[in-house]
């Protein structure tokens, strides 16, 4: 019986003859003259796989460069394992914890008795990683019974991974071996360390930053930027997670299994309440001193700005102020006037997707004491409407203006800075899958948006996933450069939320068919959600910020 078969290679738009059992790397080696880049991973039938994947049946294959979203994630994960290997070799007994992304890099800490991270330690690790690159060691993909993988991780002291595997209850587990160490990652790794030539390590706070390549120039490493306020926001929540005893998904799952879901929800919601109250008190003090007549609330998509604004208004009322709320979304130009981005798509994240002339006219009239009828933007029709929502300010009134551009000086450039109080809201996810796998804040927000758009805006997961790269580009251009302008930062993530979003998210993502390119992202997110144990959303209070995405809120949107 012949084991010859054909695959369709999307990169070269033709069928290719192969022998059953060949790996993707074997196949690429024969096509390298036609594909003008070196891939780091590939999509097989719209599912991302590593290049060690063996092909035994007809498939559609697309090889991916490091500049693709899947390729960049693969590159970064592979750097993380190479860093872990370097820690094991250079500082035996030390524990590596990769906590979160910050300042264009990934914040790493080393935990070990008498171990202090300094320039010498960082240089030692950097040099060892470069030696691993020169050795061009393979990342070997393995799959075994989960109980056997647990034993491997126990011998290596990876107790966080042990807890995770014991609470996910999978029969088999995929892991990788690099020379003498084993590890597991949320996704695929590169075939060899020799592909990871561009990176850097830089001392940062109590640890260091792991920096991958610069997407604008892949021949040089990314350069860090200052994000002091973001770092402090992350640090505050990491401390909270430590106190609660839930720093990673394994510990979260264990708490759920032990019936602690309601307690985690109550404590997390109390933390939100306390932080919102503190911000309200700060605003009130400035208001009484003659400033902060306008509070600008900004943040990226699906960060929970709307519910935060409503809850902030409640706290301001208890401080005897009269908040009046304006949503910048209601100042969108009619859809056919929306600016077009470089890819020919509507650029809803652009500052100029707003009717700046109307907004500033209404704002100036309000500050002058006039009554103003506010517009309403109908997302279904893409048109502005007026529904009789009139407001007027008095001596106790304070304007709350919510929208992604709230921190952009250009939005309110004619208003004295002393009159404005600026708040940045984002879901800064501080829980990790395990010590070597952080949870990107963008994944948290994307899941929120997929669920919300499906429930409230009639948009399926395909369209939300398809638009997300454009949203992200807009955030990088229009939102993130201004986040350090904030007077206060509010972390809208909730310790328990991904356990609650799990069921809704999986349901919506399952509807993305295999023949769509968006299936790769849908499958990745479903894999991500599989790590979490289900948490019943009935425990989530009606005032929770999470209700903005789930429904069942006591607030009117």
Number of strands: 23
Strand pairing plus helix content: what structural class?
A: alpha+beta
CATH architecture annotation of the largest domain: 3-Layer(aba) Sandwich
Number of helices: 15
CATH homologous superfamily caption of the largest domain? P-loop containing nucleotide triphosphate hydrolases
Number of domains: 3
Strands ordered across the widest β-sheet = 2-1-7-4-5
Largest sheet report: 5 strands, mixed
| Top-tier CATH class of the largest domain | Alpha Beta
What value does the Rg take, in angstroms?
25 Å
The best one-word shape is globular
Proportion in helices: 25-40%
Distance from first to last alpha carbon: 64 Å
**pLDDT under 50 segments (min length 5)?**
none
Write the layout of secondary structure elements.
Layout: E1 4-9, E2 14-19, E3 22-23, H1 24-31, E4 41-44, E5 47-49, E6 54-55, E7 60-64, H2 69-90, E8 95-102, E9 105-111, H3 119-135, E10 140-145, H4 146-156, H5 159-168, E11 172-178, E12 181-183, E13 200-204, E14 207-211, E15 213-214, E16 217-221, H6 228-244, H7 249-257, H8 261-288, E17 294-298, H9 305-318, E18 322-327, H10 356-367, E19 372-378, E20 383-391, E21 397-402, E22 420-426, H11 441-456, H12 461-478, E23 488-491, H13 497-509, H14 519-529, H15 547-550
Parallel strand pairs: 1-7, 17-21, 17-22, 18-21, 22-23
Antiparallel strand pairs: 1-2, 3-6, 4-5, 4-7, 8-9, 9-14, 10-11, 11-12, 13-14, 15-16, 19-20
Helix pairs in contact: 2-3, 4-5, 5-7, 8-9, 11-12, 11-13, 13-14
């Amino acid at each position: 019986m012949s084991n010859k078969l054909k695959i369709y290679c999307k990169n070269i738009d033709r069928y290719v003859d192969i022998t059953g059992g060949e790996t993707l790397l074997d196949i690429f080696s024969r096509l390298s003259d036609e594909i003008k880049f070196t891939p780091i991973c590939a999509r097989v039938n719209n599912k991302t796989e590593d290049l060690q994947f063996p092909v035994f049946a007809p498939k559609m294959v697309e090889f991916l460069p490091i500049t693709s979203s899947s390729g960049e994630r693969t590159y970064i994960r592979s750097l993380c394992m190479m860093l872990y290997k370097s820690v094991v070799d250079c500082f035996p007994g030390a524990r590596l914890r990769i906590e979160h992304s910050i300042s264009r890099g990934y914040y790493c800490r080393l935990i070990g008795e008498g171990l202090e991270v300094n320039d010498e330690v960082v240089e030692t690790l950097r040099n060892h990683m470069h030696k691993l690159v020169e050795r061009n060691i393979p990342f070997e993909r393995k799959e075994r019974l989960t109980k056997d993988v647990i034993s491997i991780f126990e011998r290596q002291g990876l107790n966080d991974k042990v807890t995770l595997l014991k609470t996910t209850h999978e029969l088999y587990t995929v892991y990788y071996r690099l020379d003498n160490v084993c590890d597991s990652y949320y996704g695929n790794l590169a075939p060899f360390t020799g592909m990871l030539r561009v990176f850097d390590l830089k001392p940062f706070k109590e640890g260091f930053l792991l920096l991958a390549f610069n997407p604008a120039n892949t021949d040089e490493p990314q350069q860090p930027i200052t994000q002091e306020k973001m770092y402090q926001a992350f640090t505050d929540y990491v401390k909270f997670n430590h106190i609660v005893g839930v720093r990673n998904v394994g510990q979260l799952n264990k708490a759920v299994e032990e019936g602690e879901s309601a307690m985690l929800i109550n404590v997390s919601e109390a933390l939100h309440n306390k932080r919102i109250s503190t911000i309200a008190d700060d605003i009130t003090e400035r208001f009484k001193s003659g400033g902060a007549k306008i509070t600008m609330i900004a943040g990226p998509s699906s960060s929970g700005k709307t519910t935060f604004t409503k809850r902030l208004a409640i706290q301001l009322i208890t401080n005897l102020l009269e908040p009046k709320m304006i949503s910048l979304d209601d100042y969108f130009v009619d859809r056919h006037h929306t600016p077009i981005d470089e890819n020919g798509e509507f650029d809803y994240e652009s500052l100029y997707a707003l009717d700046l002339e109307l907004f500033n006219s209404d704002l100036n009239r309000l500050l002058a004491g006039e009554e103003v009828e506010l517009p309403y933007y109908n997302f279904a029709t893409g048109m502005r409407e007026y529904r009789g929502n009139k407001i007027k300010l008095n001596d106790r009134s304070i304007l709350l203006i919510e929208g992604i551009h709230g921190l952009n000086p250009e939005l309110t450039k004619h208003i004295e800075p002393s009159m404005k109080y600026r708040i940045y809201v984002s879901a800064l996810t501080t829980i990790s899958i395990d010590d070597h796998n952080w949870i990107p804040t963008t994944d948290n927000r994307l899941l929120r948006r997929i669920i919300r758009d499906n429930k409230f805006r009639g948009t399926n997961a395909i369209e939300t996933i398809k638009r997300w790269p454009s949203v992200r580009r807009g955030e990088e251009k229009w939102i993130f450069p201004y986040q350090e302008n904030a007077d206060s930062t509010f972390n809208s993530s909730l310790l328990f939320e991904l356990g609650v979003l799990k069921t809704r998210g999986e349901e919506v993502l399952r509807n993305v068919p295999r023949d769509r390119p968006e299936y790769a992202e849908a499958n990745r997110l479903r894999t991500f959600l599989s790590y979490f144990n289900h948490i019943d959303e009935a425990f989530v209070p009606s005032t929770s910020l999470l209700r903005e995405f789930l429904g069942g809120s006591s607030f009117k949107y």
